[in-house]
Amino acid sequence: MLIVQKFGGSSVADAAKIERVAGIIADTYNAGNEVVVVLSAQGDTTDDLIDKAHEINANPSKRELDMLLSVGEQISVALMAMQLEKMRIPAVSLAGWQIGMSTNSTYGGARIKKISTERMRRELDKNRVVLVAGFQGVNKYDDVTTLGRGGSDTTAVAIAATLHADKCQIYTDVEGVYTADPRKVPNARKLDAITYDEMLELASLGSQVLHNRSVEMAKRYNVDLEVLSSYVRKPGTKVKEVVRKVEQMIISGIAKDTKVARVTVVGVPDEPGVAFKVFSALSKGKINVDIILQSAGLGGTNDISFTVALDDVARTREILEERMDAIGFDHVNIDEKVAKVSIVGAGMMNNSGVAVRMFEALQGKRINIQMISSSEIKLSVVIAEDQADQAVTAIHDQFFQD
Amino acid sequence: MLIVQKFGGSSVADAAKIERVAGIIADTYNAGNEVVVVLSAQGDTTDDLIDKAHEINANPSKRELDMLLSVGEQISVALMAMQLEKMRIPAVSLAGWQIGMSTNSTYGGARIKKISTERMRRELDKNRVVLVAGFQGVNKYDDVTTLGRGGSDTTAVAIAATLHADKCQIYTDVEGVYTADPRKVPNARKLDAITYDEMLELASLGSQVLHNRSVEMAKRYNVDLEVLSSYVRKPGTKVKEVVRKVEQMIISGIAKDTKVARVTVVGVPDEPGVAFKVFSALSKGKINVDIILQSAGLGGTNDISFTVALDDVARTREILEERMDAIGFDHVNIDEKVAKVSIVGAGMMNNSGVAVRMFEALQGKRINIQMISSSEIKLSVVIAEDQADQAVTAIHDQFFQD
User: Fold this and answer.
1) What gap in Å lies between CA A355 and CA A64, rounded to an integer?
2) pTM for the whole structure
């Protein structure tokens, strides 16, 4: 089998951890598999490099920042090659440009365009473990680019898709995907499997296990993906197209996102096109708006509420207040002390009682629901931030109690 | 003018030093010049990376070590680009592979084969300062190589030769080339100019200012070379083909090398071919032999003495003792407490009195000469190590006293 394995920065943070990870790689190789390994930068390397840059220039060009940051993954793969050599496992480290990882030119958040299989195939044919620096590529000018957040996951999935790998294993510091955050919800259980779509909803809802881009790519190319632990040798969570629910679970997980704010545009005129004006202004400003709620007010005016990421709050206020007269609203009200709690599950599609059970759980704890949004496999509510953990536990008990 | 500037690792060791060096680059650029800058890795970066490697594998493959070490220079050029950006000087950082720095495959000590001018020329045409990572290249397999000691000097000279630069400036932490080590000899004076050949002799004699490979390349391509200070803005020492000695100096400098040992093979048979056997064995073992002295002994045997680098002593002893019976000598005697003191100067060629004046200076201090070797522009003596500093000062006074 051809197996792509990805290990994150904390899994290769020091010599001892590199040795442990090398053990996993060696076992996979010695079992007769072809192995491509994607590594992130060690521990705090990327942050340290960013600090170095900011000491010199508070606002360096993204082109040069990518040139700088890409060294982190190069260090990881070279060190891992040395560790494997010591264990008499033939290995070769390769940077993004060496495997022909072509991207567009969006420095800091580049998109993969093409990966050349030639070099990796040649090394695999020599029975070598191929160690690839994650997170990085090269654009048409031969300049180094980085892929942005979750870049190494994306590198791994893209390589698995390109090489038609039999498996793509993402090793992390958790044992897999859980029904809820196991640090917060004691009864949270690990899922054996989850669908790409469920994983996508969970990822975008603040679950940090896998980045959305990698899951989207896995779905598109039908990559056999598994999330598992670098520390404990046991099966993790499979991410795939269709999951047969042996346990008849209706939902797969509960996620909490506290990095949101609720914005209310108060007193907009009750006339056609007003919502369009508000949201097209935000869209031009590259602000992603999530849940939207429009409520009728008194005296011919409405309120429009929506959620945005906390990081976008200042910019959102600025954009709206610039257009206050043009749109004709009264004022903007922003609440940063809210949280979005969501349940995700492919089983929801055919089960209309799910929403009721969620609301019931919240009502039991006297938690007020400010906004509601639903998709085919997701149901989100916005509530007060200080009630979020309580809400997750209550919902989890409602759905997963034996 | 097209000017190539090279700054060593201590000159870019931290943010403050990067800023100072950027000032030199900016002034050169703002004066209307095209500027290519070659940088070494910051301060202790290379040593830190080697430590990281050795923590994992005491004997890593050179291929992987080069992959690891090459990041040091990449960090330097990216940071310098950010500093120049802040000063509104357009700049672009480039790694070895990006400028088409082709080398052979001798990892850790690669030789430059060819440099593509295309990328650098394109960036210069855009009025950008081109920042090149020194010390590194790429072989025909697209693998990263490093050039070994003095690699960044060599990178700078090779680029100057390839781009037909008007000047190649090597910035260091000294103000130029001195007649002797200024830390040891108070009267040492800076030379305005020195010939390539003199510089070569001085470099190979342990003077750390410029590495031999870079000087050899400068001589071959007639590169206008200058050694000057990163810290003091004044002219340094020009290195060129012919130097007109305005001061009529017979010698240009005095160098001391304490990293040598004197090896004596005692009691070799007085018959033809014995010296050949000794030195061909050492040559096969890649041992460089320097000064050779053969002395007639009693009873039909001779002694053969020579100097080797201290690092080669163990291997030399091993090679000789393996062949003890085949060659038929008595025993090997090694003295590590010796030093080689040399005077260098193109003026020696036509001046037979130079040797006499050197010996006179040594005799005046009762320093015993163990071995002597001379070339057209160099005269070396081997003496006891603890007398070396005294010898340098005495010789310096002899030749440079006003």
Assistant:
1) 49
2) 0.83
